[in-house]
Amino acid sequence: MTQHIRNPGQLKNFGPRYVVFLLFLAYAFSFVDRQILSILFEPIKAEFDLSDTQLGFLGGIAFALTYSILGVPLAMLADRRGRKGIITASLAIFSIMTAFCGAAGSFATLALARIGVGIGEAGVNPSSSSMIAD
Question: What SS3 string covers 29-96?
Answer without folding.
Answer: HHHHHHHHHHHCHHHHHHHHCCCHHHHHHHHHHHHHHHHHHHHHHHHHHHHHCCHHHHHHHHHHHHHH
